[in-house]
Amino acid sequence: MWLNHPSSQREITVCVVMEEVCKNGHEGCGCVGHDRRVIGFLELLASGLPLLDSLRMNDAEEIETTTRSEPGEVGLVEPRDFVSTELFMFENGQSLPGFTLRYETYGHLNPARDNVVVICHALSGDHHCAGIHSLNDKKPGWWNNIIGPGKAVDTNRFFVICSNCLGGCQGSSGPSSIDPATGKAFGIKFPFVTVRDMVRAQKRLLDSLGVTSLYAVLGGSMGGMQVLQWGIEYPSFVRHLLPMATTARESAQGIGFNEVGRQAIMQDPEWHHGEYPKNGGPKVGLAIARMMAHITYVSDASMDRKFGRKRKGPADNAAYTFDAQFEVESYLRYQGESFINRFDANSYLYITRAIDHFDLAAAYGSLEKAFANVEAETLVMGFTSDWLFPPEQNRQIALAMLRNGKRASYAELSTDLGHDSFLLESEELYAFVRGFLQ
Predict the structure, then answer these.
(1) Which residues are catalytic?
(2) Which residue in 201, 218, 184, 223 sits closest to 81, CA to CA?
(3) What is the average pLDDT value for the chain, to the nearest integer?
(4) Is 6 helix (H, G, I), strand (E, B) or coil?
(5) Beta strands, E only, 286-374
(6) Does residue 116 lie within any of the structural domains?
(7) Together in a domain, 113 and 224
(8) Do the Cβ atoms of 289 and 264 come closer than 8 Å?
(9) Structural domain of 260
(10) How far apart are CA 361 and CA 92, in angstroms?
(11) Residue 226 lies in a domain
(12) pLDDT tens-digit readout, 170-179
């Protein structure tokens, strides 16, 4: 069911795929006879009004208005380390005697230990998704706009946890970790990691906290891949899944982009086959990989609106040199330079390869078979301007679940901000998340 509603900011185009076959005989539209409950949900989004607390996407019988307090901030947070001392077998047969995951939590665990929301980060993300570490921080966690008291992921209600993925470089075990057998960094001797390995490691963390079940798992991009894997791997443990801007299989184009980034790193003379000193390594290659990848996270329209052909310095600066002459060049160079100060090149190789290997249909025989045991209610969200993981790839996830008789919905937001739309400030996005989690 496609509906266009004008809003105060821009038009929002939403496609909602419901659980039942269309009662109006609309071939392929997936609506439920233009169910009044769904239309009401979309009208609320378009009007800019706050979502009603009692509204559920699929099973709301009655709508009542409630008062919502102004959103707040989680404030100062402190990361923690979970250390597993049990043998961990990777999907490819390699193993580690144990591992570490760095994580942060927001909100409070209820007595039943079942009000837990897991946040899964993307390739360049980490465990710090909300709040600040000190009053001197220049910016908060990467999803601070959506997590906090009264926000879409309400920490007054939920215990929210996010960990740096296995293979990462922000405190979790990865290629830059010390190999106890040699006293040196693992480098490329670290076991190869898959998205499934990441999720299995996160499950150990939750078990250590005594979590009895998950209310929801949320994430975008590679985080969305983890969300899907959570529903497949632990079907009775998870009640809601919200993958955004993601895919059930990495495409040839996506693998190609990742390979260009990896080659930029591995062809840098300072890579040394993954054996480089701390604070050293292929900084030029990593910066180029980041610059190229960042272009895939935005859209042509957003780049043109932000930079156009604006030049650095005088408007008539037309010198024929290879210094940065255009604002977009300067911006991409900044993205590359800032990235090398917080990310490890070998982790970039490992995580992009994990994304390449993500293919649920190949792993389970078909997409329908992959979702056969999923029990969670699922909302898949796509963004019209996302050309890295286009809307169709997100829609296919929901359709495969529906063909399997699962409780699934699909929502598509019309934006011109590209793949990173799920990270940016959007009242429509907040409303969908808040409404689904009610």
Answers:
(1) 221, 386, 419
(2) 201
(3) 86
(4) coil
(5) none
(6) yes
(7) yes
(8) yes
(9) 254-352
(10) 18
(11) yes
(12) 999 999 999 9
- One domain for residues 316 and 337: yes
pLDDT in tens, 370-419: 999 999 999 999 999 999 999 999 999 999 999 999 999 999 999 999 99
On whether both 211 and 307 belong to a single domain, the answer is no
Sign for the CA dihedral angle at 241, 246, 252, 257 comes to: negative
Residues 169, 287, single domain; the answer is: no
The C-alpha atoms of residue 268 and residue 275 are separated, in whole angstroms, by 12
Is the CB of residue 424 less than 8 Å from the CB of residue 309?
no
Q: What would you measure as the largest C-alpha separation in the chain, in angstroms?
A: 67
pTM score, whole prediction: 0.85
- Which residues, at least 6 apart from 173, have a Cβ–Cβ distance to it below 8 Å? 96, 99, 100, 101, 166, 167, 190
Distances (CA, A) of 82 to 47, 160, 195, 232: 44, 16, 19, 24
**Statement to judge: residues 261 and 249 lie in one domain:** no
Total domains in the chain come to 2
* Domain assignment present for 359: no
Identify the H or E element spanning 305: helix 300-306
What distance in Å separates the CA atoms of residue 17 and residue 30, rounded to the nearest whole number?
Answer: 5
Say whether both 224 and 330 belong to one domain: no
Alpha carbons within 13 A on the beta-carbon side of 292: 17
- Determine contact, residues 186/172, Cβ cutoff 8 Å: no
Element (H, E) at 202: helix 195-208
259 with 247, same domain: the answer is no
User: Which run of H or of E encompasses 4?
Assistant: strand 2-5
Consecutive 10-residue averages of pLDDT for the chain (438 residues): 31 38 36 30 36 28 37 94 98 97 98 98 97 95 97 98 98 97 96 98 98 98 98 98 98 98 98 95 98 96 94 72 91 96 97 98 98 98 97 98 97 95 94 96
Q: What is the CATH number of the domain that holds 260?
A: 1.10.1740.110
